[in-house]
Design goal:
alpha/beta; Spore Coat Polysaccharide Biosynthesis Protein SpsA, Chain A; 2 domains; eight-stranded mixed beta sheet; 8 strands; elongated; binds uridine-5'-diphosphate; binds magnesium ion
Length: 314
């Protein structure tokens, strides 16, 4: 049994050596064959040279270095494309995903009952309350409006069989939202909760704004509900305006037409104008995504690697 570990790294010079030491410790004890796929996502620090040092001294290590920063989603995709294992795992380089869980995860897959073992944080302790609130609201919303099963607090850390990896690779969409993709492909998943950990070194690459945009991406990628809302707004406004029309005509016939109501007219115009721009914006979001998909640009470009079998552009 060959185990592939995919590790996206972006400016992880402090964390990577610590991660490597801990993960190899665990893997050596498991006595299974393994490969470590380190994806350098256009880091500007010493991450790549650390990878090269590790690869020089350890034949299990393969590094794949992107030509620029493509984002974690692309890094995971590159890992999936190049993983040859029977079981494949994705984990962060900052030790927030504890390698000590790996033996248990492998055992669960080997029992043959499940196709994947996913992890979720047991609670949201240590997180700013505003962020927790937005996160919860996001998960409630997206589960209501999309048919992908997206679990609150799920991490990207998961172990899966090759069948599931192939299914994930078959979803070659350009705008990738892995939490949704993992849920969408289905398969039997075992959920393993664990205590949330602080990253060992370095700092997070996610600002609140970046997370917010990621959440909006997730909604647009896995649901057409915003488009439906735009249509419903349109229908509602048409009905309301028709009602108003009748009221105004009747009033004119019965009471004549006193010239008044400038303020209310302006309010209505501004309100409807705003609503129209809002709905246009929603359509624009989907159009922009469609535009990017139709260009069929590669997800990533590898400019440097030590793997002979590497798929350099995909
Ligand atoms: N990462 C990446 N490309 C990016 C941003 C992040 O490959 O553009 C990697 C990063 O090196 C880490 C993982 O994705 O291994 C998770 O990032 P981070 O720890 O910053 O996110 P958090 O755990 O705070 O959500
Ligand atoms: Mg982290």
């Amino acid at each position: 049994m060959l185990l592939s570990l995919i590790v996206p790294c972006y400016n992880e010079q402090e964390a990577l050596p610590l991660f490597y030491r801990e993960v190899t410790g665990v893997l050596e004890q498991m006595r299974c064959d393994y490969e470590l796929l380190l994806i350098n996502d256009g880091s500007s620090d010493r991450t790549l040279s650390i990878m090269k040092e590790l690869a020089a001294s350890d034949p299990h290590v393969y590094y794949f270095s992107f030509s620029r920063n493509f984002g974690k989603e692309s890094a995971m995709y590159a890992g999936f494309c190049n993983a040859r294992g029977d079981y494949i795992a994705v984990m962060d380089a900052d030790l927030q995903d504890p390698p000590s869980l790996l033996p248990e995860m492998v055992k669960i897959l080997e029992s043959g009952e499940y196709d994947s073992v996913a992890t979720r944080r047991a609670d949201r302790a240590g997180e700013p309350p505003v962020r927790s609130w937005f996160a919860r609201a996001f998960y409630r919303l997206i589960n209501r409006i999309s048919d992908a099963d997206i679990v609150d607090g799920a991490r990207d850390f998961r172990l899966m069989t090759r069948e599931m990896k192939d299914a994930i690779l078959s979803m070659a969409e350009y705008n990738r939202f892995s939490k949704g993709i993992f849920g969408w492909v289905g398969f039997k998943t075992y959920w393993l909760p664990f205590e949330n950990k602080e990253r060992v070194a370095g700092k997070t690459k996610w600002s609140f704004w970046k997370l917010f945009k990621y959440a909006v991406d997730g909604i647009i990628n896995f649901s057409n509900a915003p488009l439906d809302i735009a249509s419903w707004f349109g229908i509602l406004m048409t009905l309301v305006s028709f009602l108003f029309l009748i009221i105004i005509v009747v009033r004119r016939l019965i009471w004549g037409d006193p010239v008044a109501g400038w303020a209310s007219t302006i309010c209505v115009i501004i309100f409807i104008g705003g609503l129209q721009l809002f709905c246009l914006g929603i359509i624009g979001q989907y159009l922009a995504k469609t535009y990017m998909e139709t260009k069929r640009r590669p997800h990533y470009i590898i400019s440097d690697t030590n793997a002979q079998h590497a798929k350099k552009i995909r």
